[in-house]
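Hi support team,

I've been running sequence recovery on a batch of backbones for a student project. Most finish fine, but this one hangs at about 90% for roughly twenty minutes before it completes. I'm not sure whether the input is malformed or the queue is just slow. I've pasted the structure tokens below so you can try to reproduce it. Let me know if you need the job ID as well.

Thanks,
M.K.
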């Protein structure tokens, strides 16, 4: 689709891979993520979101924290002007909200861990260090992924 890229299944585009339910697939999105931290990133906006989320790093306020978590990720993507990333990120966040809650509720320190990881991403953005910001975001995503896997064992 012009100005949007490939954003959904299309019958004329053959699948790159077929997977069975339960199989794990990793998508390489480096090209989309590389421009996530750009000159339009508003440090003051991100700082304000993090200042607010610090108040909610307690399981009693997980809904408030979750809303700020989504806002943080959206602000980073939108500030970079990467429409493809913004469009791809929203449905992923919406679909993963229940899993996110499980991942962060199963650990007493889950919200604190997320906050610290956001702070590391922000610190790199504030310094203007794209490579450090990318690495910090990769650490954050890997950490949440591990917590999601751990939290999925609800036995």
């Amino acid at each position: 689709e012009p100005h949007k890229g490939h954003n959904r299944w299309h019958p004329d585009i053959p699948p790159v891979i077929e997977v069975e339910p339960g199989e794990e697939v990793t998508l390489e999105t480096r090209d989309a993520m590389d421009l996530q931290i750009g000159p339009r990133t508003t440090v003051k906006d991100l700082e304000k979101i993090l200042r607010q989320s610090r108040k909610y790093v307690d399981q009693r306020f997980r809904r408030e924290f979750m809303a700020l978590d989504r806002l943080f990720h959206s602000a980073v993507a939108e500030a970079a002007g990467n429409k493809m990333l913004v469009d791809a990120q929203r449905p992923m966040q919406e679909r993963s909200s229940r899993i996110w809650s499980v991942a962060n509720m199963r650990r007493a320190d889950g919200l604190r861990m997320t906050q610290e990881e956001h702070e590391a991403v922000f610190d790199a953005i504030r310094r203007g260090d794209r490579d450090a910001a990318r690495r910090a975001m990769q650490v954050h995503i890997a950490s949440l992924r591990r917590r999601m896997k751990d939290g999925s064992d609800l036995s």
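--
Follow-up from support: It reproduced on our side and the slowdown came from queue contention, not your input. The chain has a mean pLDDT of 76. No action needed from you.
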